[in-house]
Amino acid sequence: APLPPAEPEKALAVSSGELRLGGKGKKLRKPRTIYSSLQLQALNQRFQQTQYLALPERAELAAQLGLTQTQVKIWFQNKRSKYKKILKQG
């Protein structure tokens, strides 16, 4: 028997880390990353040395910690904004 034609509205589109069912309905977000204490220790140590990572540094750190470069990038972004917020409060 021939296969029924693919239903385009059931196709999964992935954009900027969000899963969407054919552009309809709610966005399905990826669950938030849970970092191990070892990963956090390394990330925090690195942040104390420098608040900004160059691309090769980010790639290396991600590889060492078994994270994606995006996870490392976003962790640093979040950490910088948290740090600035704390500085603002005095």
UniProtKB/TrEMBL annotation:
<feature type="DNA-binding region" description="Homeobox">
    <location>
        <begin position="28"/>
        <end position="87"/>
    </location>
</feature>
<dbReference type="InterPro" id="IPR050460">
    <property type="entry name" value="Distal-less_Homeobox_TF"/>
</dbReference>
<protein>
    <submittedName>
        <fullName>DLX4A protein</fullName>
    </submittedName>
</protein>
<dbReference type="GO" id="GO:0030154">
    <property type="term" value="P:cell differentiation"/>
</dbReference>
<dbReference type="GO" id="GO:0005634">
    <property type="term" value="C:nucleus"/>
</dbReference>
<comment type="similarity">
    <text>Belongs to the distal-less homeobox family.</text>
</comment>
<dbReference type="InterPro" id="IPR001356">
    <property type="entry name" value="HD"/>
</dbReference>
<keyword id="KW-0371">Homeobox</keyword>
<keyword id="KW-0238">DNA-binding</keyword>
<dbReference type="InterPro" id="IPR009057">
    <property type="entry name" value="Homeodomain-like_sf"/>
</dbReference>
<dbReference type="Pfam" id="PF00046">
    <property type="entry name" value="Homeodomain"/>
</dbReference>
<dbReference type="InterPro" id="IPR017970">
    <property type="entry name" value="Homeobox_CS"/>
</dbReference>
<keyword id="KW-0217">Developmental protein</keyword>
<feature type="domain" description="Homeobox">
    <location>
        <begin position="26"/>
        <end position="86"/>
    </location>
</feature>
<keyword id="KW-0539">Nucleus</keyword>
<dbReference type="InterPro" id="IPR000047">
    <property type="entry name" value="HTH_motif"/>
</dbReference>
<dbReference type="GO" id="GO:0000978">
    <property type="term" value="F:RNA polymerase II cis-regulatory region sequence-specific DNA binding"/>
</dbReference>
<dbReference type="InterPro" id="IPR020479">
    <property type="entry name" value="HD_metazoa"/>
</dbReference>
<dbReference type="GO" id="GO:0000981">
    <property type="term" value="F:DNA-binding transcription factor activity, RNA polymerase II-specific"/>
</dbReference>
